[in-house]
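Hi V.,

Quick status before I head out on leave. The structure for the redesign project is tokenized and pasted below; the design run finished overnight.
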């Protein structure tokens, strides 16, 4: 096309000038400067005596047929030019020289040369793709046959990296980041070199390596180390791997340098105590970390502590599931060693099974186990730690009995129990009944925790209305309820007044001591605050007592009683009954008249068993005026008011007092004062 355009121009020139023209090979090279200007030089094609002038003609690749004269020289020695408007760093330009001769001599046209326009594609961060155009097709006479690909080095000097005959070149970029500047050169035998524009391109390796395949996460059963294995990354510039503890935050555990290193041992993990999940990712030599296996982590198998069942002579073995095995999980193999012998296969179990019961064990024998998961093709496996235990002989409890029961504080029954301490007893059960034949209801489940004496307070017992029977049993280490104790019965005391000077007490026999009851002791207390005194003793077979009050002096509102049983040949062993109260209401007698100058000189009440915590007597006249007040039961009114003799007549007496039961009582009467 360029040659056709040039031919058209030549024809136009010939038709306009009417003169001849000839071609000449006297311009050989074009140089694109860094700023886009184009420098050119040419040889003198004619002698000076025929020289008239030089014309520099240019067109661009965007409009190659539109040639314009951009410079005219009339001095014969001007054989070079710099086109400062070329912008040849962004476009391809075409140039030729016309030498005008004097007279009818023809003009001499040089070859039409093109600037070398270089383009670099950096869409692939690992490859620079260079393309450029030819100086002339075919190359000008004397031109080299190879284009030199030049690269600016660290010293800002262009140096050749290759030479090729074509117009396309691919340069691998093997660094993580590079700012590269290229240009193309081609020399000519005439001593010049055509130079392209320089092209600057940035290459940054942001491509991360693909996700590696984590083969397995396993525990070395013999050392307890956690070992990870994976396939080597397929990425050519992979530099190593990142190992993670996979959970919500995916903590970085370690960096493994070298793509050929495909295993890792986590010596800080404790896979015998807890399962650990792991994930890995690859990183390249530029530090780009690829996607990790966070969403498909693999986890160590935790073999739980072995649970020995002495009653069945069996070991219960359980473990956590292995997850995300690739190829998929097929099952688990359970291995057994007895007495530190070699491990042998005990059971081959399907993938969904996470426990096994090993039966038929011998006593006092060591058993060691570990579990190994395996894939469908048996190529991938993962093992657990070794767990062990030693069997022992189940011990049955030998004894269980109640030691004592007693009523305390008239509110509860305190129970003392003696479970067996020879065998392991995880629980004692306590029962209660209202009759000897039952039924017995469970009231407490107590954990002995190795204690040889247990205590329990039955707060729900109604000790004043009911006598109770108690029993206990033991739960052995196999969960069996065994050894029901003897029954033991509380003492319930009742009583009543048989006459004003006699109280009759009755109680039921205490039951449950192996040696039996030696005797019963009867205690009495006067009023609420009085202390208990022993007033009598009965034989073990006598369950009643008469309390003669004829010798009891003083005034009181109540009598309190309790009974205690004494154990035969056991000093200090007693069982107390409930406490009962027999009340004595005060009998207050008021006279209906008195004469201060006669026999009854003072008006005051008389009474029997009168003992008041609060007492007051008020005397009123018939107009409601209070004349006298006394808070002493023994102090009465002498018929005077403010030191003066009160007149004869009818008066009112009001007495306020608190009874032995704590109730406030009022007594009101009228009487006559005689003079």
């Amino acid at each position: 096309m360029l040659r056709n355009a040039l031919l058209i121009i030549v024809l136009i020139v010939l038709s306009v000038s009417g003169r001849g023209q000839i071609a000449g090979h006297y311009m050989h090279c074009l140089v694109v400067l860094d700023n886009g200007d184009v420098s050119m030089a040419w040889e003198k094609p004619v002698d000076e005596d025929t020289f008239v002038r030089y014309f520099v003609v240019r067109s661009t690749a965007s409009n190659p047929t539109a040639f314009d004269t951009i410079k005219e020289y009339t001095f014969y020695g001007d054989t070079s030019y710099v086109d400062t408007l070329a912008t040849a760093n962004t476009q391809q330009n075409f140039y030729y020289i016309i030498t005008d001769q004097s007279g009818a001599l023809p003009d001499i046209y040089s070859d039409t040369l093109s600037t070398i326009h270089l383009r670099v594609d950096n869409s692939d961060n690992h490859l620079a793709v260079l393309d450029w155009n030819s100086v002339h097709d075919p190359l000008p006479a004397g031109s080299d046959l190879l284009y030199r690909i030049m690269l600016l080095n660290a010293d800002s000097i262009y140096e050749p990296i290759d030479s090729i005959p074509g117009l396309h070149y691919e340069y691998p970029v093997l660094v993580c980041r590079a700012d590269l500047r290229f240009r193309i050169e081609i020399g000519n035998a005439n001593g010049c070199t055509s130079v392209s524009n320089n092209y600057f391109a940035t290459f940054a390796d942001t491509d991360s390596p693909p996700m590696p395949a984590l083969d397995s996460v396993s525990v070395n059963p013999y050392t307890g180390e956690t070992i990870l294995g994976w396939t080597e990354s397929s990425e050519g510039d992979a530099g190593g791997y990142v190992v993670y503890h996979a959970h919500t935050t995916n903590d970085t555990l370690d960096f493994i340098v070298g793509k050929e290193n495909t295993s890792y041992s986590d010596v800080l993990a404790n896979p015998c105590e807890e399962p650990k999940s792991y994930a890995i990712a690859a990183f390249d030599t530029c530090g780009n970390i690829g996607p990790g296996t966070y969403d498909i982590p693999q986890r160590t198998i935790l073999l739980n502590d072995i649970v020995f069942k002495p009653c069945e002579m069996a070991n219960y073995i359980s473990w956590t599931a292995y997850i995300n095995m690739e190829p998929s999980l097929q099952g688990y193999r359970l291995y057994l060693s007895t007495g530190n012998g070699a491990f042998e296969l005990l059971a081959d179990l399907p993938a969904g099974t996470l426990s096994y019961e090993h039966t038929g064990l011998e006593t006092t024998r060591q058993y060691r186990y570990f579990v190994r998961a395996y894939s469908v093709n048996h190529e991938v496996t993962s093992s657990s730690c070794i767990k062990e235990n030693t069997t022992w002989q189940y011990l049955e409890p030998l004894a269980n009995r109640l030691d004592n029961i007693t009523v305390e504080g008239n509110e509860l029954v305190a129970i003392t129990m003696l479970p067996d301490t020879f065998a392991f007893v995880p629980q004692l059960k306590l029962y209660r009944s209202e009759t000897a034949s039952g039924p017995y209801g469970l009231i407490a489940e107590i954990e002995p925790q190795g204690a040889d004496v247990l205590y329990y307070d039955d707060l729900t017992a109604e000790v004043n209305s009911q006598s109770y029977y108690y029993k206990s049993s033991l739960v052995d280490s196999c969960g069996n309820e065994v050894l029901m104790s003897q029954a033991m019965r509380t003492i319930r005391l009742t009583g009543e007044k048989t006459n004003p000077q006699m109280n009759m007490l009755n109680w039921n026999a205490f039951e449950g001591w192996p040696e039996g009851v030696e005797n019963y002791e009867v205690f009495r207390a006067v009023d609420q605050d009085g202390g208990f005194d022993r007033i009598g003793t009965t034989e073990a077979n006598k369950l009643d007592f008469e309390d003669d009050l004829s010798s009891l002096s003083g005034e009181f509102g109540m009598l309190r009683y309790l009974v205690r049983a004494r154990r035969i040949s056991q000093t200090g062993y007693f069982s107390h009954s409930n406490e009962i109260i027999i009340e004595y209401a005060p009998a207050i007698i008021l006279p209906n008249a008195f004469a201060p100058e006669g026999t009854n000189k003072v008006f005051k009440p008389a009474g029997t068993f009168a003992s008041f915590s609060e007492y007051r007597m008020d005397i009123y006249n018939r107009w409601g005026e209070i004349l006298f007040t006394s808070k002493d039961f023994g102090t009465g009114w002498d018929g005077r008011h403010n030191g003066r003799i009160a007149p004869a007549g009818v008066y009112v007496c009001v007495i306020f007092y608190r009874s032995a039961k704590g109730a406030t009582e009022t007594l009101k009467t009228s009487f006559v004062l005689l003079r």
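Above is the designed sequence. The chain has one helix and 57 strands.

G. will cover questions while I'm gone.

Best,
W.
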